[in-house]
User: Fold these one by one.
Assistant:
Number 1:
Amino acid sequence: VTTVKNVSPEYSGRLQVITGENNTNTTIIGAVPVYAPVHNVEISSGSFISERDQKNMTKVAVLGPTTALDLFGEGQDPIGQKIRISGQTFTIIGVTASKGSSGPNNQDDRIYVPLSTALKQLFGSKYLTSIAIEAKDENSMNQAINEIGYLLLANHKLTDPTKADFSIMSQSEILETATQITGTLTTLLSGVAAISLLVGGIGIMNIM
């Protein structure tokens, strides 16, 4: 594969997180250091997961701003504080800058831990949930998708692309899907509002 700049193996799942009297159920992402540049994650305070954290399977965590607020409240510095994830204690080393939410996908409400720690200590998994890949440039995107597809087919010992046991989605496809979902929700809410107005109008007429 000649068109790829960075590869970010990842594992994600939801777990309960506790600190003191506060707790929240949020997305836990097992990540490697290159996750940050691939996903344009910026740090507002502290630091992101390092290669040493990944290699040594350390119990450190980087919080999204919404998760930090839920667990520690307004105006509190969570750096150096402890949280418990599935009964295991993690030390907070960083807080990410706000990226906002897109529908149910709130990028500020999540916790990043080393991928090795997530796989072996939190989820007990031998598999990844996704691999994020950054192409060398915008013009290489389609070629990168083709190269990656053929590589995975070969590794999975498949010759027919229609029988692929994996899926590849580009950023533009993800954006298009999100736009379609948003449009559907808008139409649905408009319909509910119209029905509510109609029922309310009938109710007022009956009262009069």
Number 2:
Amino acid sequence: LPWDQRIFQQAQSRYRRPYIFSDQEFLRLSEAALRLPSPQSPLRPQTLHMMLVLGYCAGLRIGEILRLNVGDFGGDDRTIEIRRTKFFKSRRLPLTDSVAAALQSYLDARKKAGAPPTPDSALFWHRQAAGRYSRGMAESLLRCVLRRAQLKPAPGRMGPRVHDLRHAFVVNRML
């Protein structure tokens, strides 16, 4: 029995309640992303902003966001193709007019920054060798934005996570 109690306590300590962002908190987060100083990567603030928009307004997981290619966005029908998701499934999501417009604006900025325009190039591109943000780098940058928006305290694992954008999407959809 003492062993079972220790396992239970460990499991409880690792469990984190979902955080549901309010609309005002998301706006703060969005503004913090756009104000992020990035002299070496001028497209980075818009990239992080668009990642947040897709998490909050379309409910995408961070891995799904990072695997998006330019050709996955259908501007004419305002959809986005999500490939190789959890359990190796794919799906096509309709986007609201505002999200489609934000994505089109991002694509224009991406083009001006010199990103490759081919359909199979990474949607969230940067100049480094891989041309695509790694999961670790994206999560680190988005955590930085959460802290700059004063939604997450500086030390440790406290406060909302990037994945909580998906939870907020689901709750807002249900409401």
